[in-house]
Design a protein that fits this description.
- With about 300 residues, the chain is α/β, with parallel strands linked by helices.
- The chain has ten helices and nine strands.
- α3 links the parallel β4 and β5.
- α1 crosses α6 and α2 packs across α3.
């Protein structure tokens, strides 16, 4: 297939491109060349420009849309919201105009309101699954949420196939390396960055993107699916139910799958069973794997 990866020169994008290029014809769209894949075709496009986007994004079977401001602190909130939302809208308009059949959308668990957040909201159940309503309430999470809404509604109205990947805090790339390396080295009992201890290796984001490109939809309408993606276990030193009790000591959310936490006390607070069942996703990288890969010395247990 002919694939376009927006943000393909970025931290996650570079790993996704590496996963895809062995099986597909890949082009990168970014504002700068890729240091990791300088040999691949490059479209230097500003996705905030609708005409430039529409004229450039053509001739592809699938667009993997990863281009975004990746957090709420790199720029002022209004810019984070505007850039991320407008880029996704312009891209979907280009996909529609050029009859591209599929979009894989790089979303975030933050779109749920339970990742990056300003207020601790209590989910309806644990593990958090795709039936849980999304309650985003700051610029970044709102931008990712509205991006997913745009994708879903274009799928409903125009028949575009869309897979939204709601991945958590990404470890293993260059981005935020001091933060996640510190957690690996020193341990954690949860904190401001991610109070549910949810993380995923960049390798597994790339795995999921590859699976999403090749996913076979049923005859359902609309052809839209969203998936939570995390590592198998939370990153803290606590069992997941203990971690939840830190936020809700007197009234924790109900546990919809108690057997999950009996068999694996540190199982993710986000439910990845839909991604396992439909995509074939299986987390492949553990914290121990990353410690070995980056030669991070861990404190004694």
């Amino acid at each position: 297939m002919k694939l376009l990866v927006t943000g393909g020169a970025g931290d996650i994008g570079g790993k996704v491109v590496a996963e895809l290029r062995s099986r597909h014809d890949v082009t990168i769209l970014d504002r700068r060349p890729s240091d990791r894949h300088p040999d691949l075709p490059l479209l230097e496009v500003n996705l905030e420009d609708p005409l430039q986007t529409k004229s450039s994004v053509r001739g592809f079977d699938v667009v993997v849309h990863l281009a975004a401001i990746p957090d709420p602190v790199s720029d002022p909130p209004d810019i984070v919201f505007r850039v991320n939302t407008m880029a996704t809208f312009n891209l979907l308009e280009a996909v529609l105009a050029n009859r591209i059949r599929r979009v894989v959308y790089g979303c975030s668990e933050s779109a749920s309101g339970f990742g990056i957040h300003n207020t601790v909201l209590k989910p309806l159940r644990i593990p958090i699954d795709e039936r849980q309503p999304s309650w985003p309430h700051e610029a970044y999470s709102l931008s990712k949420y509205f991006g997913e809404v745009i994708c879903e509604q274009y799928s409903r109205a125009y028949g575009i196939e869309v897979i939204s990947l709601r991945y958590t805090w990404v470890w293993g790339g260059a981005r935020n390396r001091p933060a996640w390396s510190k957690v690996i080295a020193e341990g954690s009992r949860g904190g401001q960055k991610d109070w549910l201890g949810a993380w995923i290796a960049v390798d597994d984001v790339a795995q999921a993107a590859g699976l999403a490109c090749e996913f076979q939809f049923s005859d359902q309408e609309p052809r839209f699916e969203a998936f939570y993606l995390t590592a198998r276990e939370n990153f803290t030193e606590l069992a997941t139910l203990e971690l939840l009790n830190q936020s809700w000591p007197d009234d924790s959310p109900p546990i919809s799958n108690p057997d999950l936490y009996k068999s694996n006390p540190k199982a993710s607070a986000f439910d990845i069973s839909k991604a396992q069942r439909l995509l074939g996703y299986e987390p492949s990288v553990t914290i121990d794997d990353l410690a070995k890969r980056f030669e991070i010395e861990r404190k004694p247990a």
